[in-house]
């Protein structure tokens, strides 16, 4: 059994769970929740960065981060499934990088609130990251894949980034990005694992 260290709210952990489901590998993975803030959690021994998701293989090897884990799962499933081979691979990976970047920038804003007392918070720094989210969403809205195209890690990552904005930013993005709203509804209808991994605030 593979062991996935994650937490229900992690957009990167969610990406791995959805990828595993689409690849037919969910039964081979046991999810063990991790507390990234707890120094006693074995996570820091498994991954020196103390980050989730982290995947512990049957032989004891450990893989991180989510992009490496998703590559591994795709390889286990035969390769070229959600990370296409050939030329298409690079745009799929680029789209994953963009969506992960949106999630990263959103997460850093959440961490600013979580880790800093109010008087130490830096509005300019938060704005800098909010700009990344906004430009990323602008780009995604203008460059959406059509529902007839096969799903890649780019679309999975985008759905998880949007899900994270729903969870932590009360879905404010929905007011400005109507195409992304209907794209996400379509994704949810196509991918049952998306609803199954949803957490409510
Ligand atoms: N690039 C990493 C990002 C992972 C990440 O930032 N995870 C967050 C939770 S969603 C985390 O572990 N935060 C704890 C920390 O940074 O100490 C990936 O794709 O796996």
Question: Top keywords for this entry?
Answer:
single chain; 201 residues; alpha+beta; Glutaredoxin; Glutathione S-transferase Yfyf (Class Pi), Chain A, domain 2; 54% helix; binds glutathione
Task: Give a verbal description of the structure.
- It contains eight helices and four strands.
- With 201 residues, the chain is of the alpha+beta class.
- Strands 2-1-3-4 form a four-stranded mixed beta sheet.
- α1 (11-22) links the parallel β1 and β2.
- The radius of gyration is 17 Å and the shape is globular.
- It binds glutathione.
- Glutathione is lined by residues 10-12, 36, 50-53, 65-67, 100, 107.
Entry summary:
By secondary structure, this protein is an alpha+beta fold. It has helices spanning 11-22, 43-46, 66-76, 88-115, 123-142, 153-168, 178-190, 192-196; strands at residues 2-6, 29-33, 54-56, 62-63.
């Amino acid at each position: 059994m593979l062991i996935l260290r994650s937490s229900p709210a992690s957009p990167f952990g969610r990406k791995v769970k959805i990828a595993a489901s689409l690849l037919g590998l969910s039964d081979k993975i046991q999810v063990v929740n991790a507390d990234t803030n707890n120094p006693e959690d074995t996570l820091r021994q498994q991954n020196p960065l103390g980050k989730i998701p982290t995947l512990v293989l049957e032989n004891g090897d450990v893989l991180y981060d989510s992009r490496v884990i998703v590559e591994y799962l795709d390889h286990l499933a035969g390769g070229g499934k959600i990370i296409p081979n050939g030329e298409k691979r690079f745009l799929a990976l680029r789209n994953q990088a963009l969506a992960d970047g949106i999630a990263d920038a959103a997460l850093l804003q959440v961490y600013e609130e979580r880790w800093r007392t109010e008087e130490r918070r830096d509005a300019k720094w938060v704005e800098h990251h909010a700009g990344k989210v906004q430009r990323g969403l602008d780009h995604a809205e203008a460059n959406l894949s059509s529902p007839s195209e096969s799903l890649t890690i780019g679309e999975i990552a985008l759905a998880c980034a949007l899900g994270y904005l729903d969870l932590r930013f009360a879905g404010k993005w929905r007011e400005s990005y109507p195409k992304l709203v209907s794209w996400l509804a379509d994704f949810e209808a196509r991918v049952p694992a998306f609803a199954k991994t949803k957490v409510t605030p």
